[in-house]
Design a protein that fits this description.
Helix content is about 50%, strand content about 15%. It has about 325 residues and is an alpha+beta fold. Strands 1, 2, 3, 4, 5, 10, 11 and 12 form an eight-stranded mixed sheet that branches. A two-stranded antiparallel sheet has the order 6-7. A hairpin with a 2-residue loop joins strand 3 and strand 4.
C-alpha cells in the first residue's frame, strides 16, 4: 500500500489529505472483498465436504432409534409409560423394510446377515439392536405322534403332486397297462418304449398309484376320471402343517425361555399364510447390545439365522413376558 501511495502522489500531485482518504477507502473495499471471497471459498469447501460425507453415508445402513420396546398394556409402569429396556438404552432398528443381506457370515458361533454385521461395526454409541432370529430349515427326525417330520413332509409332497400325476396317467395309462412288455416286445399296435423311459415313469407314479388304476392289465380310465373330477384331499398337507407347527412352537418357546433366563428381551412374531395348507412364518425379535449378542447362546442356536430387524414389520407385536411355570 505504501508504494501505491507514493506513485499516486507523483502522478496526481494531490494533497496528502485527499490521497490518504482515497487510499483508506480502497483499503476498506479490498478488505471487504477479501472477506467475502474467503467466506465464499469456505462455503464451497464445506459443500464439497458435506457432499463427500453424504456419499459416504449412503453406503451405511440407516437407523431408527427408539427407547422403548413394543409393550403390552398390562406391562406398563404405574405412570402409564411404556416399559423401558434395561438402562433405558435406545433400540436400533433397520429403518428400511426391504433391507437386503448381501451375504451371511459366521460370527461368534451364529449365522448373521451382512446388514446386522455392518450395523455392529458402524454404530458407535452404546445401544440395543433389534435382531430378527428365524429358524432355517427343520429337523426331519423330530417326532410328532410317532411319525417323523420328514415322513409328514414326504406324504404332503406326494399329496400335492397327485393331481398332476393323475392327469399324466390319464394320457399314459393305456400304454403302461402292458407292463414290461411295453419295452420288451411292444404292443400289438406297434407301440414300444425303451426300458429307461418305462422305468422312469413307473418310479414317477409309484406302485401304489398304478395298482389302483391298472388292475390285471386293464386300465381303469373311468375310475381315474371320476377321481380327477372329485376334490383332492389335503389331509396329508394339513397333518404336516400340524406337525411342523408343533416343532416350531417347541423350538421357539425353548429359545424364548432361555433368552429370558439370560435377561434378554424378546418377542415372537407369526405371519399367517393365506393358504391353509402352507406353514405360517414364525420368528423372534431379540433386543440385545452387541456385547450381549456376541455371548448369547441357547438350544438349537445353530438352526437360527440372525438379521437386522425392521421396525416396519415388528412395531405391532408384543414383547415376550414369560410365565412363572415357563421359568420353572
Amino acid at each position: 500500500m505504501k508504494n501505491y501511495k507514493e506513485m499516486a502522489e507523483r502522478v496526481f500531485q494531490r494533497s496528502d489529505f485527499i490521497i490518504e482518504k482515497k487510499l483508506k477507502r480502497r483499503s476498506i473495499m479490498r478488505t471487504i472483498t477479501s472477506i467475502v471471497s474467503c467466506f465464499v471459498f469456505f462455503i464451497l469447501i464445506g459443500s464439497v465436504v458435506l457432499i463427500g460425507i453424504s456419499n459416504h453415508k449412503s453406503h451405511i445402513p440407516s437407523y431408527d432409534v427408539t427407547n422403548t420396546v413394543p409393550h403390552h398394556p398390562d406391562q406398563e409402569q404405574s405412570n402409564g409409560a411404556a416399559v423401558l429396556l434395561p438402562n433405558n438404552l435406545g433400540i436400533v432398528w433397520a429403518d428400511d423394510a426391504m433391507i437386503e443381506d448381501l451375504a451371511f457370515i459366521e460370527w461368534h458361533g451364529k449365522t448373521i446377515g451382512s446388514s446386522l454385521y455392518e450395523a455392529f461395526i458402524k454404530k458407535e454409541e452404546d445401544c440395543v439392536f433389534a435382531i430378527r432370529a428365524q429358524v432355517n430349515g427343520y429337523d426331519g427326525q423330530y417326532l410328532y405322534k410317532g411319525i417323523t417330520l420328514a415322513e409328514y413332509n414326504a406324504a404332503a409332497e406326494e399329496e400335492k403332486q397327485l393331481p398332476d400325476k393323475l392327469g399324466q396317467l390319464l394320457k399314459e395309462g393305456e400304454a403302461l397297462k402292458y407292463g414290461e412288455a411295453l419295452y420288451k416286445i411292444g404292443t400289438a399296435e406297434g407301440l414300444k418304449w425303451n426300458q429307461e423311459s418305462y422305468e422312469d415313469r413307473i418310479a414317477y407314479y409309484g406302485s401304489k398309484l398304478l395298482s389302483k388304476y391298472i388292475v390285471d392289465g386293464v386300465f381303469l380310465r373311468e375310475r381315474l376320471e371320476a377321481d380327477l373330477a372329485s376334490p383332492i384331499s389335503d389331509a396329508a398337507q394339513m397333518a404336516y402343517k400340524e406337525a411342523y407347527t408343533a416343532y416350531m412352537d417347541e423350538i421357539y418357546k425353548t429359545a424364548q425361555k432361555q433368552l429370558t433366563e439370560q435377561n434378554i428381551f424378546n418377542e415372537r412374531k407369526s405371519i399367517k399364510n393365506e393358504y391353509k395348507t402352507n406353514n405360517d412364518l414364525d420368528y423372534l425379535v431379540i433386543y440385545a447390545s452387541e456385547d450381549e449378542f456376541s455371548v448369547l447362546n441357547f438350544e438349537n442356536i445353530s438352526s437360527f439365522v440372525f438379521t437386522f430387524a425392521s421396525k416396519t414389520h415388528c412395531e405391532e407385536t408384543l414383547p415376550f413376558f414369560p410365565s412363572d411355570d415357563m421359568l420353572g
